[in-house]
């Protein structure tokens, strides 16, 4: 299999949630660099700017689908993967709207996966967009002994200080903001768990892939994409807490360490001077709710992904 074959069967999936301007920037850039309109699948998760994006896609004659309700990252992307498969797509690139990526980067990722049929998922080195010589991630890490504490290889390192080149297989997951994968692994391992809603979905999926010992995942550090740093509020901490507790339960991680980490977070919130007492209480309640709900989540959800009649729902 060669790169051109992968490109012919590549679906670029971009999930919008109130980021239509960024989505249009991404698509315009890649169209201008040689990608065709049939490569793109633009999905909207019940955004306030959905109509604006739908109008844009209509003018460009690009596939657009509004989910109708926001059931999370995995739910919408699983839907898009299955929809693209009906068009004969066998390779899928999921892009977050805040990513800045060019065609050469995508071409290289396609060549990387084409050269190794055992490679399930590949992504680029991710840099900070506002400081393009600083690395955000050369691949994600998960540490079960620390309660599935997450991290990133070479995070906050200056590019000139890092000697790592080529493919980095010493990772636990490929960042879901820019990851390319093949249909075969979905048939084998299953889809991302939709009940996680946001955060840890791609981490768990890649972790599941690696545990099978049948597939590899990697970061190609010879190419880069650029990510805008985002703020982390109480919604972020709720889902990070909930899903981290769930991961510990499912994969025998150290729940005590996870709970200890969350207790430290609560103490930090309590000491923050930029929050009012009411905001602190709300924030702390979210973290405590995340702990409680993490013990309630189903340990054996479906891996089949979103099912629907695409002829009835798509436009």
Descriptive notes:
The model is unreliable at 311-315 (pLDDT under 50). This protein folds into two domains: 3-230, Spore Coat Polysaccharide Biosynthesis Protein SpsA, Chain A, CATH 3.90.550.60; 234-294. The strands form two sheets. Strands 1, 2, 3, 4, 5, 6, 7, 10, 11 and 12 form a ten-stranded mixed sheet that branches. A two-stranded antiparallel sheet has the order 8-9. With 315 residues, the protein is of the alpha/beta class. Helix 8 runs parallel beside helix 10 (277-294). Helix 2 (20-32) links the parallel strand 1 (10-16) and strand 2. The longest helix is centred in the C-terminal third of the chain and has 18 residues, at 234-251. The chain is globular, with a radius of gyration of 19 Å. It has helices at 3-8, 20-32, 50-60, 73-86, 103-114, 183-189, 201-211, 234-251, 255-271, 277-294, 310-313, and strands spanning 10-16, 40-44, 63-66, 91-95, 99-100, 119-128, 131-137, 140-143, 149-152, 167-168, 178-182, 216-227. It has eleven helices and twelve strands.
| N→C terminal distance | 32 Å
Largest sheet report: 10 strands, mixed
Instruction: Name the average pLDDT.
Output: 94
H-E order: HEHEHEHEEHEEEEEEHHEHHHH
Computed structural class: alpha/beta
Spans of at least 5 consecutive residues whose pLDDT stays below 50 are: 311-315
């Amino acid at each position: 299999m060669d790169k051109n074959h992968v490109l012919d069967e590549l679906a670029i999936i971009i999930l919008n949630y109130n980021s239509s301007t960024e989505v249009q920037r991404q698509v315009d850039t890649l169209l201008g660099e040689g990608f065709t309109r049939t490569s793109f699948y633009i999905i909207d998760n019940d955004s306030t700017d959905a109509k604006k994006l739908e109008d844009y896609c209509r003018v460009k004659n690009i596939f657009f689908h509004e989910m109708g309700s926001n059931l999370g990252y995995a739910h919408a992307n699983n839907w898009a993967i299955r929809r693209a498969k009906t068009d004969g797509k066998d390779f899928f690139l999921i892009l977050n709207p805040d990513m800045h990526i060019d065609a050469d980067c995508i071409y290289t990722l396609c060549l990387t996966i084409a050269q190794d049929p055992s490679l399930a998922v590949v992504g680029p080195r991710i840099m900070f967009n506002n400081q393009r010589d600083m690395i955000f991630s050369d691949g994600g890490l998960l540490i079960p002994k620390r309660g599935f504490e997450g991290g990133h290889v070479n995070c906050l390192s200056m590019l000139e200080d890092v000697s790592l080149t080529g493919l980095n297989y010493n990772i636990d997951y490929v960042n879901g903001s820019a990851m390319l994968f093949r249909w075969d692994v979905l048939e084998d391992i299953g889809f991302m768990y939709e009940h996680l809603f946001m955060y840890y979905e791609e981490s768990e999926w890649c972790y599941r892939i690696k545990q099978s010992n049948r597939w590899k995942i990697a970061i190609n550090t010879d190419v880069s994409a650029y990510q805008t740093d985002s703020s982390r509020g109480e919604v972020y901490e709720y889902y990070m807490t909930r899903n981290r507790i769930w991961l510990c339960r499912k994969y025998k991680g150290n729940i005590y360490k996870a709970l200890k980490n969350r207790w430290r977070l609560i103490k930090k919130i309590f000491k923050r001077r930029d929050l009012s007492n009411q905001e602190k209480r709300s924030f702390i309640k979210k973290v405590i709710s995340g702990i409680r709900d993490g013990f309630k989540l189903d340990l054996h959800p479906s891996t089949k992904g979103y099912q629907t009649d695409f002829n009835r729902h798509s436009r």
